[in-house]
Amino acid sequence: MPFPMVQELLGQLFKKPNTNPFPAAQLPPTITGLLEQVGRGEATLNPSVPVPAKLRGKMTYNRETCIGCNLCIRVCPAHAIEALPATKKVRIFVSQCIQCGQCTEICPKQCLALSEQFLNASHDRYDTSLVVED
Ligand code: SF4
Ligand code: SF4
């Protein structure tokens, strides 16, 4: 075996794992069980890794400043934004959004933004956490 490879192998023996033990150091039997334990103060969550600058995560929407111009709907390539004509506001379906940022650039009132929130998994695409209305 070439010497650099032996050196690398020996080095690996003394390195800590690069994986981030998130959300807990030991894999819990169920995530919901873990979250219930956290709620009761019986367990704590390990912080996630720091997100990179300008990460494109879950959409945020400022309903108050929205003027209902629907420009965001016209530019959205994923058809992830729905007009609410009765209120002249919009609704964003996070499960459909591809985080392209087009709507954030076109919005004349800057009421749309891509946040750093990236933990958006759900079994239900219409889960209230994945439908942004305010
Ligand atoms: S970021 Fe892109 S895909 Fe997501 S809602 Fe805005 S325009 Fe649509
Ligand atoms: S572009 Fe902005 S102001 Fe216009 S409807 Fe969309 S969110 Fe509202």
Q: In a nutshell, what does this entry contain?
A:
By secondary structure, this protein is of the alpha+beta class. It is 22% helix and 13% strand.
Provide an overview of this structure:
By secondary structure, the protein is α+β, with helices and mostly antiparallel strands. It folds into two domains: 1-49, no CATH class; 51-134, Alpha-Beta Plaits (2-Layer Sandwich), CATH 3.30.70. It is 22% helix and 13% strand. The protein has helices at 3-13, 31-39, 71-75, 102-106, and strands at 59-61, 81-84, 89-93, 112-114, 131-132. Strands 2-3-5 form a three-stranded antiparallel β-sheet, with no helix packed on it. Strands 1-4 form a two-stranded antiparallel ribbon. A hairpin with a 4-residue loop joins strand 2 and strand 3 (89-93). The longest helix has 11 residues, at 3-13. It is elongated, with a radius of gyration of 21 Å. The model has no long low-confidence stretch (mean pLDDT 90). It binds iron/sulfur cluster (2 copies). One iron/sulfur cluster binds next to helix 3. One iron/sulfur cluster (SF4) binds next to helix 3.
